[in-house]
Design goal:
single chain, alpha+beta, three-stranded antiparallel beta sheet, two-stranded antiparallel sheet
């Protein structure tokens, strides 16, 4: 059974982006595994240039990823730690909305059944 995946991400202090698309069974299993990994995210600290930094972003990408401050990429957080495979991660990452500067936090991941849609207006 096909479903739609809805992902909402934070790009900048409450500026939310979302993406929704239809996915098949193979994608659904990968999405579930990565979403479970993201749900288990815990803030962590790093020491950068003599300063201890606490990082609370669960999916930093683009300019939102602050490697200069010791922040880890999503690949480091989830693939390198063994919480998901690179293939599962790539399936999920391709569905994540991306702002002008990337995103930093996944706020919501929902699987929704595909329902009949009645198109009332298309321009």
């Amino acid at each position: 059974m096909k479903k739609t995946i809805y992902i909402q991400a934070d790009e900048n202090d409450g500026d939310y982006l979302s993406n929704e698309c239809t996915v098949g069974e193979i994608e659904i299993e990968a999405i579930k595994k990565v979403a479970k990994a993201i749900a288990s995210f815990e803030p962590y600290t790093s020491n950068s240039n003599g300063f201890e930094m606490t990082h609370s972003h669960n999916f930093p990408t683009g300019d939102c990823l602050r490697t200069d401050l010791g922040e880890k990429s999503p690949e480091e957080l989830y693939v390198d730690s063994g919480l998901c495979t690179l293939e599962e991660f790539e399936i999920f990452k391709d569905l994540v909305p991306y702002g002008s500067y990337g995103v930093h936090t996944i706020r919501c991941v929902e699987l929704r059944p595909v329902v009949e849609v009645e198109n009332l207006l298309t321009t």
